[in-house]
Structure formats: C-alpha cells, structure tokens
Amino acid sequence: MTIGVLEGQVPTSSTRPRRATGEAVAALMAAMIGMLTLAVVNQFTAISPSFNTWVHAIGKLWMPGAQGIGPYSGKETLSAIGWLLSWAVLHPALRTRELTLSRWLIAFLVGVGLATTWIWPPVFEYFAGH
Q1: Mind listing the pLDDT tens digit for each residue in 89-121?
Q2: For residue 70, which of 44, 52, 90, 50 has the smallest C-alpha distance?
Q3: For residue range 37-55, what is the model confidence (pLDDT) as tens digits?
Q4: Residue 77: left if φ>0, alpha if ψ -120 to 50, beta else—which one?
Q5: Residue 40 CB partners (closer than 8 Å, separation 6+)
C-alpha cells in the first residue's frame, strides 16, 4: 500500500481543483483580436487619408509625444481597445467553460498568422494599392 493513499483509491497528481480552460481561451482570443485590429487599422490608414487623420487624433488624445510618432499612436490605442473590450466580453462568457485548448490554440495561431501576413510589406502594399 502506498503511503497517503487508502486501499481502493486512485492517487491523483494534485489536490488542487482543475480550473476551467475557458479563461485561457478568452485570453488567447482577445490577444488575437487585438492583433487583427492592429492589422486592419494599419491597412485602412494606408488606404484612407481621412481615416489616417482620425486615427492620429485618437492617439493624440492621451499619448504624450503622439505628434512625433504620427498615426502609430492611434493604431496602438485602437489595438489595445480591441484587446481589452474583447477580453472584457470573452472572459465572463467563457471563464467557467471547459473547452478543448488544442482547437482554440489552432484558431489563435491562424489569426496571428493572418494578422502578421496582412502587415507584411508585399501583402500590405498589394491591398493598399501601392
């Protein structure tokens, strides 16, 4: 007989209760949405001068030195807003659910791949019409 385990019981590797995987999925999906937001905003600032001006104005609202870095300040601001809002929605919705992490990790990696591809100069310039 093993010490600490009564006869007929199966020893467990941990005495802590398992946490639902929904929290991790919510964090992954929110990060992916933030990255996709950055890619989309970046594309539209290249296509539309008026959107570019608006995005720059968003950054100048709160970021010191935003005038010097241009619309990048607004792009990062909108990306952070997309991330935080999606996390604020997804976390309460998924936190108690037990989800298959491998499927959601694949979705996350596909989204990150799309965001990265979209800002890659040959693809970016093709869609921007340069």
Answers
A1: 999 999 999 999 999 999 999 999 999 999 998
A2: 52
A3: 999 999 999 999 999 999 9
A4: alpha
A5: 118
